[in-house]
Structure formats: structure tokens, C-alpha cells
Design goal:
about 240 residues; alpha/beta; six-stranded parallel beta sheet; four-stranded mixed beta sheet; 8 helices; binds NADP nicotinamide-adenine-dinucleotide phosphate
Length: about 240
């Protein structure tokens, strides 16, 4: 039986609530939850509030992330950042993490299915790039409340597939409407046919599972890690930690 860990959650929106719901089933005690009111600009992350906390999970919004990372690093707590739309400031985050000696895992997508989709996408890009009759493209669709576009997942897909096509730009199209569950497609289109690799979310639980897996993994570690790196050992460890 894995050791019980004391968890803090920053951001109590759709994802924060899903993490809070799942955490007790995955061996975490939720000791602290802070939404924007309790934590404006990261001000709620104090040594007093974080006393006894083993690890923190952050799902807030792009403009809040850097302040939260600084505050959590200042109290010496390791953390998982699930918020998207801020990765252009990754170098700043790296400096904070490395100078404070904490451990942090981040990802645009904590779903294990999406992580495997990334690997497929890279392989598919290499295969299709050898045949110039096929044009590559990416599409993504989400509910109307999602703040960033293109999604962090689409940007990561683009980063992975673009090198195979060199100077042929891989276009990315985004849709925000209604309650559409997160959907990402990598397509290859020719005059004769279309090939599509697609991932569709069924619920937010997959993200919470991955974030809690990362939270347990990062305890006792130092440095900045992407979720893809920590999963690269293969699926067995991740699946058993998720209890599935
Ligand atoms: N990596 C992944 O796997 C993954 C999966 C799903 C979503 N996401 C990302 O995670 C983020 C959150 O998604 P969501 O659907 O949960 O959004 P949401 O429902 O809008 O929740 C975000 C919450 O964070 C709060 N907040 C803002 N600033 C804060 C701060 N400084 N301290 C504490 N709380 C703060 C917001 O409060 P107010 O609304 O009152 O401002 C809101 O309650 C988004 O960036 C989304 O794209 C990532």
C-alpha cells in the first residue's frame, strides 16, 4: 500500500474539483484547496498554509501560473502544473524551480491516452513526410469556456510533427463552442484519400489520474520534468499507480 500524501490544490474550477474528488481514492489526503479568492497573485501560498503539505497540484489559468510557481517554490513544496497557455514562459519557470531546489512536473495534457497519441503522431508524421502527395494538418475543438487557443495539446502535437515536414508548414485550426469535449486530430490529406489519427476526451478523470500520478512521482525529486519524460519507462508503472 502506497504511503498517504498530503495534497494542496490551487484552482478549484472544473479540474481542481475533479482532482479533489479522485485524490482520496488514490492515496492522497486533500489538506488545502485554494481558489482565486484565497490566493490572489499566489498570496495564499504561505509557509503557515503549506505546513505538512507533501505536494501541490495547480489547475488555474495562464496568467496565474508563474506567480503560483514562485510562491510554491518559495515555501519549498514540490508541484504539478496542469494549467495550459503559459509554456512560452517555461524558461522563467525553470529558473525558479532550479534556484529553489524543488521538483515540478508540467504538461499540456495529463491524459495517458494523449501521451501515447503524441508518440503515434511523431511516427505517423515520419511515415507521411516521405510521401509529398499528403498534406499534414492539425485540428482541435473544445468547449466554449476554454481560454487558450490553439490548445496546449495542439501546440505540442505541432512541435512533435513539424520537424518531419521541414519547410512545409503544418496548419493548426481551433474551434471553441458549446460543450465539445477536448478533441484533437492529426490528418494527412491527398487527392485520393484522408488518414486521421484522433483523440477524444470522454471526461476530465483521465487528466486528474495523470496529474495525481505525477504528484506522487515528483515527491522527493528535484528539477523540472515534462509528464512525457516521466512516462517514458512505459505504461505499467503509471497504470498500477492509478489503480486501474
Ligand atoms: N494539463 C491537462 O491535462 C489539462 C486538462 C484540462 C484542463 N487543463 C487546463 O487547466 C486549467 C484549468 O482548467 P479548468 O477547466 O479547471 O478551468 P476553470 O474551471 O476555469 O478553473 C480554473 C480555476 O482557477 C481559479 N484561479 C484563477 N487564478 C487563481 C489563483 N491565483 N489561485 C487559485 N485559483 C485561481 C479560477 O477562479 P476564477 O474563475 O474565480 O477566476 C477557477 O476557479 C486551464 O488552463 C486548462 O486549459 C489542463
Amino acid at each position: 500500500m502506497a504511503e498517504n500524501l498530503n495534497l494542496a490544490i490551487l484552482g478549484y474550477g472544473k479540474m481542481g474539483r475533479t482532482v479533489a474528488q479522485l485524490a482520496p481514492q488514490r492515496g492522497f489526503e486533500v489538506r488545502l484547496i485554494m481558489d482565486i479568492d484565497a490566493n490572489p497573485g499566489g498570496a495564499g501560498v504561505t509557509p503557515e498554509n503549506f505546513k505538512g503539505i507533501d505536494v501541490c497540484v495547480e489547475f488555474t489559468e495562464p496568467k496565474a501560473v508563474l506567480a503560483n510557481i514562485r510562491s510554491v517554490a518559495a515555501v519549498g513544496c514540490n508541484l504539478v502544473v496542469g494549467t495550459t497557455g503559459w509554456h512560452d514562459r517555461l524558461d522563467e519557470a525553470r529558473k525558479v524551480v532550479e534556484s529553489s531546489g524543488i521538483g515540478m512536473v508540467y504538461a499540456a495534457n495529463f491524459s495517458i491516452g494523449v501521451q501515447l497519441f503524441y508518440r503515434l503522431a511523431r511516427q505517423a508524421a515520419e511515415m507521411f513526410a516521405a510521401f509529398p502527395t499528403y498534406d499534414p494538418y492539425l485540428t482541435e475543438a473544445h468547449h466554449k469556456f476554454k481560454k487558450d487557443a490553439p490548445s496546449g495539446t495542439a501546440l505540442e502535437l505541432k512541435r512533435l510533427v513539424q520537424p518531419a515536414f521541414r519547410d512545409r508548414e503544418v496548419p493548426v485550426a481551433s474551434v471553441r463552442a458549446g460543450s465539445i469535449p477536448g478533441t484533437h486530430e492529426l490528418g494527412f490529406d491527398s487527392e485520393a484519400d484522408t488518414v486521421i489519427v484522433r483523440h477524444t476526451d470522454r471526461s476530465r478523470q483521465g487528466f486528474a489520474e495523470g496529474a495525481l500520478y505525477a504528484a506522487r512521482w515528483v515527491v522527493g525529486k528535484k528539477g523540472l520534468f515534462n509528464f512525457a519524460d516521466i512516462l517514458s519507462h512505459g505504461g505499467t508503472e503509471a497504470q498500477s499507480a492509478e489503480g486501474t
